[in-house]
């Protein structure tokens, strides 16, 4: 039991990386598992949202300073960092630029609240970064992909379909979790330690099925070909890490940590679901979204150890 708790907790990166390797190299045709990708993502969001009291959301709505800070941080997360990553990738390997930009355009991952807590950051700011980036993503992601992805631009109806799809994938699990919290408050409180583990289990499943479902797009490629999208995903993460380190000059450590966890640990599961739905079989779009899981974990660990917040919160704001 202790081993299971560890693998679905601090050492979650072990089953995550194992699932990635199994998905990439196990023989067979698994295209039939494609419909399960969105349900695995829904499970991640549902279990994570079980740990988010709706009262925290309502309480923060009256804090203008918080909302103002979230506004420019969301702009940096959803537009500035993806634009930088896209521009650099386009100079180096233009075929992969759209896929790298897509995963960088994703909203903050729901796990970023827990990671912010772990590194003594501003939990409420992290929560609102998740909310605001998730609300804006249904507009920014389809619009961004229409600008940078090669081929004919989608019409307004298709953009609207993509926006509704993203909104549904985010809103339904969150609403369902809040309904369960209201209906079964004692049970939710009693099982609080397990909801995060349920989320991680769904994450591992999603990594596995998303790779298996889309592998036909790169099945004939040599294994070494995977190094290019992996290296580019790592480069994009380093760009986000560097930009976050610059903020330490102007913001208190807790606020910077909240932004760091949002920027470095994005909702790449949503990018996989989006790419699977709207760019099926396009390995140049899907692979960066899948392989981003590798640097995401590493960069958050780096932030916690190398860019550890100072004890003082007296930095200028």
Would you kindly provide a written description of the structure presented here, covering whatever features stand out?
There is one protein chain. The protein has 16 helices and no strands. It has about 325 residues and is an all-alpha fold. Helix 5 packs antiparallel against helix 6 and helix 11 packs antiparallel against helix 15.
Compact description:
The protein is built from 16 helices and no strands. With 317 residues, the chain is mainly alpha-helical.
Note the topology:
Elements: H1 2-7, H2 13-25, H3 36-49, H4 54-60, H5 64-92, H6 97-104, H7 112-118, H8 123-148, H9 156-183, H10 185-190, H11 192-214, H12 227-247, H13 253-264, H14 268-278, H15 283-291, H16 293-305
Helix content: over 70%
Helix/sheet category? mainly alpha
Give, in order, the helices and strands. Answer: HHHHHHHHHHHHHHHH
Return Rg in Å: 19 Å
Overall 3D form: globular
- Percent strand equals under 5%
Largest sheet: number of strands, sense, barrel closure: none
Number of helices: 16
Question: Unreliable runs, pLDDT <50, ≥5 residues?
Answer: 309-317
Q: Count every beta strand, where a strand is a DSSP E run of 2 or more residues.
A: 0
Question: How far is the first residue's CA from the last residue's CA?
Answer: 45 Å
Mean pLDDT figure: 81
